[in-house]
Amino acid sequence: MNMREERGLQIAQNSKIIKTPVGWKVPSQSGNGTYVVNLDHSHPFCTCPDFEKGYKCKHIHAVEFTIQKEMRPDGTIIQTQSVKMTCTQEWSAYNDAQNHEQERFVLLLRDLCNGIQQPPQTFGRPRLPLADVVFGMVYKSYTTMSGRRFMSAIRDAEAKELIDKTPSFTSSFRYLENPDLTPILKTLIEQSASPLRAVETDFAVDSSGFSTTTYARWFDHKYGKERSKQTWVKTHLICGVKTHIVTSVEATSYESADNVQLPTLVNQTAKTFNIKEVSADKAYSDRRNLQTVQAQGGVVYIPFKSNSTGMGDKHHKFDGLWNRMWHYYNFNRDTFLEHYHKRSNVETTFSMIKAKFGSSVKAKTPTAQVNEVLCKVLCHNICVLIQSVVELNIETTFETFGTKEAVVPKLAWE
Asked: Quick one: 64 and 21 in the same domain?
């Protein structure tokens, strides 16, 4: 069963497929509308973009799984509109992880934050412990509460000796606007992924936006009036395709391009993980991106744009790697797409983050908005790590900031 058939089976099992006069209405896995599938013609038809490219899409497979056809010797066809549901989820482990997620979340978050070194101070009022401030901000993102309503939870964390001092909600807001916090949060995200270094070897890259409450305004000379549009925080990340752990992330302004972010994401991931494959969409089709992944010992699966050729052009000399991958893409399309469609896992990762921790940010300043998105990604990683600890029985170890000293948390559920 190839990737499209697997996705089709998931749709058939988990979604409601309706028969209409014009065909079968199949819901999109992204939740944005439906597609119409018609099997009455000599060749199946679907209105989705994937079918328009010439492939038998997952929506057609979903309808075929829903309609089980049986051909009788006399030529008649019996159609049974049912599907046998099979589930590979380890429900006992899943239930255990979900039932105790919050209590385990704060323990792992505490152990991650314990590695944060307190900046030196020579004058002024004593500062709050930076580890406690970061703990509070990330824990607040996990609960999705407002700053004021979250104060009860952070005071309870102090009573349980998870932190030394409770930061006020105004102090947390001020720290969220500090640009020095951004590299700390990125490091915590990378450290939270490190226990899965033996599990993940294939990765996917993509970007998505988190909406904000701020607007970009400009004067439109054509119509002689001021216009505005909502801005967002564009988030580029690379994740493992098995557990959906985020191994590196870059949060930028909404105008930023996609393809220039891949080298940074791959190189940061390669510091901890052994990279075998990286998949991304056409927005990342660039010679430098292919060379970056190859330099880390991996193979990149990025579809080529329609105007791409396997030879050099006026802007580039002949590139052997580009030439090989172009021929592989054009003459071994099915095999290429089997690897490329692992990219859908990064869309699943974004969906998990937004569904659980929100698809928008409340902060007003650009720096605070970036840090708020990074807090959401860190929350996602810790939740994935909790699930992996229960299901895979792995050991969690983190390195302290600026050293190679390993921190082995004493997990209460072990």
From this structure: yes
Each residue's pLDDT tens digit, 1-46: 678 888 888 888 888 888 876 678 888 887 777 888 887 656 788 8
Hey, what's the torsion of the CAs at 266, 272, 278, 281, to 10 degrees? -50
DSSP lists the bridge partners of residue 74 as: none
Going by C-alpha positions, the residue among 384, 396, 378, 383 that lies closest to residue 134 is 378
Residue 147 CA to residue 156 CA, distance in Å, equals 15
pLDDT tens column, 121-157 = 777 787 888 999 999 999 999 999 999 999 999 999 9
Cα distances (Å, whole numbers) of residue 51 to 7, 37, 44, 81, 123? 14, 10, 10, 23, 65
Pairwise CA distance, residues 94 & 256, whole Å: 38
From 48, 81, 114, the end of a domain falls on: 81
Over the stretch 157-191, which tens digit does the pLDDT of each residue have?
Answer: 999 999 999 988 898 899 999 999 999 999 999 99
Task: Give the burial string for 311-322 (b: 16+ CB within 10 Å, else e).
Answer: eeeeeeeebeeb
* pLDDT at position 225 over 90: no
Under 8 Å between Cβ of 210 and 403:
no
SS3 content of the chain, % helix, strand, coil (to 5): 45, 20, 35
pLDDT for 68 beyond 90: no
Under 8 Å between Cβ of 299 and 276: yes
Q: Which domain holds residue 226?
A: 204-241+253-344
Number of domains comprising the chain? 3
Q: Do 208 and 340 fall into the same domain? A: yes
